[in-house]
Amino acid sequence: MEERSAEIDRLRSANRKEREDIEKRQANLIQSDSLASKLLEDFAADCYSHYEICKLQHKNDSAAYWLELRASKDTTNGEWQVDCGIFILNYQANYTLAQTYMERALNIVNNNPDFSDDSRGSCFANLADVYLKCGQYNEAINMYTRALCLHSKKSEEYVAATVGLANCYEIISENKKAADCLREAYSVYQQMNYHTPEILLRIYNQLATNLVKRGNFEEAQKFLNLSLELAENDEAIDLPRQIIVYFDAASFYREMNKYEESESLLKKALEVSLVIYEDKHPTISSIYNGLGVLYYNLSNMENAIYYLLKAKDCHTNNRDNEQYAQVCSNIAGIYLREGKLDLSEQYEIEAYNIRVKIFGEDSPAMFNQYNALTALYCEKGEYEKGLGYVEKAIALIKREAGEMHPSLNASYSYVGGINMRLGRLEEALKWFKLALDVSKHYYGNEHTETADAYSNIGGISLYLKRYDEAIDMLKESLRIHIAVYGEKHVDVAADYNGLAQTYMAMGNYQDAISNFEKAIDIRKEVFGNNSVKLKPLYGFMIEIYQKLGDVKKAESYSKLLDAIQE
């Protein structure tokens, strides 16, 4: 018993000493943790300071290095992961790496109940931004929608996510949904007591883009001017956002045939881009592409090919990528228009070889490439060869997505167009109707893709002299286009033009005149009183009034036509 008693005393003494040691070590640990936290705080601040200096000097790789170093020292700090992801997304266009950081931030907030719903919503929106820029629009829509469910409706974060969602809908041509989102964003923003310039700029810019697509150019011009004023005069607007405003404004002016203004803005965008980005940044390549398209529209093929070749040179270090393949396809398009079919084929085949190397012949990513080859060989008169490529495209999509994938619209239309050129009008009509079935299945009956399918059927029905069917199809196309765009849109003018030609073929000249006049009024408002787009319409009016024996009216349209030609 004495031995057992002594053992108890010994253990108690040892435990007492151990507790004292633990308390001492705990105190040392607390002190060490505090020191480590202070060292980390100082280290992070120095990293950020180095980042800011490098960013000001436009040394993007070095700036990213300091942000990544800071983020690596505490992978539980979501803010640091987001800062890193945003910079890499905007300045380096490394979408895969940006996504890694955004997903890490999302995992941090999802695994910690202390974070608010707003924090989770911001992470979903940041990830949506990545998906949007890399072209994964369905994923972006999903992420923006999840963000909206988490954000307070009267917050700037809610507005920003709504504008991002509108941008997605614009790109996939769901313009009514885009307009609804923008109205919601603008309404919420006007009710808020504070405003961030960048969010306001995004609203203005997106509203302008949406209004252009709906044919409301006057209203679009108003928001475009507000965007330009804010981008150029508010120091809170960063340079990447300023470049976007310049680029979008240039696209608007090109649409309005104001080519000098478009060229000036593109060159401003290029000037800023060359300062803040490295030589091989995709934004610089995109602007060169934009200049190439501008000069293509002006039929200045020399300048068009010059800038497209500069876009091509941005990829000297790496040509095994999709963007370079797209540049090659753009160059092929220039040569196709010039009738240099061998050169066009050379560049299109180069694009094809790159994409085969990246994706393989049987990948759905080859779909657009096969369609491009179809267009080339149709122009060369090699219709059977073109038909072979478009059939490959159709087989790829059907294999991956079934019979009703929206991408099949373009391929079915190509097959219809080939059959039209071969004089197989009934076969062409069959394929155009298949395109309509796909459109209605995927988009419903109120979508512009469906309207375009109706328009194609109306056109082939006119060739087949099935005038009643042509009128029904063109009227349905007109109804949808007006519902989506309003009365003053170029697609609405095209529908009036198709109806007018059908009535003209039927000998119903009064209805033909009425529809031609509507098409003329829209094109005047959209393109100006002396646009070349009015020439064919004036020609039809002259022909009708000559048949009616109204020499005075025919002469009046002849004078209008001569004025355009002069």
What does this molecule look like?
With about 575 residues, the protein is mainly α. About 80% of the residues lie in helices and about 0% in strands. It is built from 26 helices and no strands. Helix 3 (about 80-90) runs antiparallel to helix 4 and helix 9 packs parallel to helix 11 (about 240-255). The longest helix is centred in the first third of the chain and has 55 residues, at about 1-55. The protein is elongated, with a radius of gyration of 31 Å. The N and C termini lie far apart (about 125 Å). The mean pLDDT is about 85.
Q: How large is the radius of gyration?
A: 31 Å
Strand content: under 5%
Q: Quickly count the helices.
A: 26
Q: Which series of helices and strands comes N to C?
A: HHHHHHHHHHHHHHHHHHHHHHHHHH
| Major beta sheet summary | none
> What is the total tally of β strands?
0
> How far apart are the first and last residues' alpha carbons, in Å?
125 Å
- Give the overall silhouette: elongated
Whole-number mean pLDDT: 86
Class from helix and strand fractions:
mainly alpha
Q: Uncertain regions: pLDDT < 50 for 5+ in a row?
A: none
Portion of residues in helices? over 70%
Provide a quick synopsis of the model.
The protein has 566 residues and is mostly helical. It has helices at 2-56, 60-73, 78-92, 95-110, 117-133, 137-150, 156-171, 175-191, 197-213, 217-233, 239-255, 259-276, 282-297, 301-313, 322-338, 341-359, 367-379, 383-401, 408-421, 425-443, 448-463, 467-485, 490-506, 509-527, 535-548, 551-565. The mean pLDDT is 86.
